[in-house]
Amino acid sequence: MKMKYIALFFASVAASLMGCSSEIEDGTSNLDKLPDVVSYTLTHPCMLHSETDFSYVKSRLGQSPWSDAWEHLQNSKYANTGYVAEPVEVLKRMDYNNWHATYPDYNNFEYLMRDAAAAYQLALCWKLSGNEDYAMAAVRILNAWADKCTGILKISGKGWANDIPDPNEYLISIQVPQLANAAEILRDYAGWNSTDFTAFKSWMVDTFYKMASLFLSNHHNSSDPQYTWLNWDLAQMNSILSIGILCDDSDKINEAILYFKNGIGNGQIDNAVPFLHKDPDSNETLGQCQESGRDQGHATLCVSLMGIFCQMAYNIGEDLFAYKDYKAVRMAEYVAKYNLYKDESWASGGHADGLFQYSKNGFPYTHYTNNSWDCPTLSSQESNDASRGDKRPCWELFYGYCKQKGISSVYCRKQADQMRTLSSIKCDGGAGDYGDTSGGFDQIGYGTLMHYRN
After folding, report:
1. For the segment 348-403, what is each residue's pLDDT rounded down to a tens digit?
2. CA distances from 238 to 28, 172, 312 (A)
């Protein structure tokens, strides 16, 4: 297995010669410093939340802001013990124009995204309250999917990568960490039959792992591994890491973490954060996100997915927040700053530059391009910054880490503060709070409840 990672490392260095994150400096290489493959011994639960995390939160449920967040979770329609799963036999996430005539259920992954959210929220409620009704409801959801769903749509013999007909199907991976985290929380619930738990783990591997791993190795048969945006790589990395932790599989864990450090696509941290800037308004260094030149809806999605990845790694002993001088944190700070409303502008929902604390004019940015896009300015692929300021529940996780470590996080803190003080729910929420379409389910959320630290 180690040879696989050595091959991956050589491939990453070769790719770096063509990209913006070269590993070759001053005529020398670091090929003699091959990364070690770690044999992980896991103490469960250890994915997004550890037993220490749960103990900490339970001891503070009567205090603000945890009390507001706890009340909000319990009132969620997805944390309903009567929730009934709607599993499908074959999962699809496909383009309407190309596929709706052939497959009327071309977008049936939405059943999975809702059920994954419900399973996670119910599992959280059980762990924090001890009420087994929540656990039983969550287990019914996970078992229903493992029993009925046979996998993701493939069409054999068509010449597509892994016979996946529409590359959008790879984005089903965004829902995988929510499923895995629900199962991780429930793994010590006595009412989940060990045979069913084993079957669920096998279903996760068979349905999602192979697709995610293939994408990171060949990016849907693209000749350019940086052709796809950062969120595509992060979705697969989160899928692999969460499945690896759930299944006590060090090979899969190493595959995801070594890709973050040495991979060939935009999920590799130097490609994810290609440029660093001295912040003119603080002593911080800001890290330009690979999708900041696209639109802010996707830039904030990248913060959410990066935070989940780093937190899962952190809970198994890998501090990727701190890797390469806190580059992931610097990316979160950059995106947070650009999307930070003036307090009085929060309710307007507008996107005009004057509504934000920091103007686009003069905001530190480096023009970047490749063979598939050109991003001369911030949000250059979006009309009038139409998604600037859109809210995603991603800031508490970064702020909670930085607060514990004593690290500056001026802008994540301000974003998290606004989520707690200016929103009607007095916390950052989760699935169901940010729209009914897929964008409202692309992040796990509930950071105020689970990641705020005093």
Report:
1. 889 999 999 999 999 999 999 977 789 999 999 898 999 999 999 999 999 999 99
2. 33, 12, 9
∠ CA 144-428-414, rounded to 5°:
150
* Phi, then psi, of 180 in degrees rounded to 5: -65, -40
Q: What is the pLDDT of residues 422-432, one digit of tens each?
A: 999 999 999 98
Which helix (DSSP H) or strand (DSSP E) does residue 368 occupy?
strand 368-369
Chain-centroid distance of CA 147 in Å reads: 26
The overall average pLDDT reported for the chain is 91
Cis peptide before 65 (omega within 30 of 0): yes
**DSSP-assigned letters across all residues of 397-435:** HHHHHHHHHT---HHHHHHHHHHHHTSTTSS--BTTSS-
Which DSSP state fits 134? H
Q: What is the token pair recorded at 245?
A: 């932790």
Identify the residue whose tokens are 């502008």. 345
pLDDT band at 1 (very low <50, low <70, confident <90, very high): low
Q: Which of 9-13, 90-94, 146-150 has the lowest mean pLDDT?
A: 9-13
The candidate with the shortest Cα–Cα distance to 265, out of 324, 331, 216, is 216
Q: Minimal CA–CA distance to 442: which of 398, 399, 389, 390?
A: 390
- pLDDT value of position 30: 40
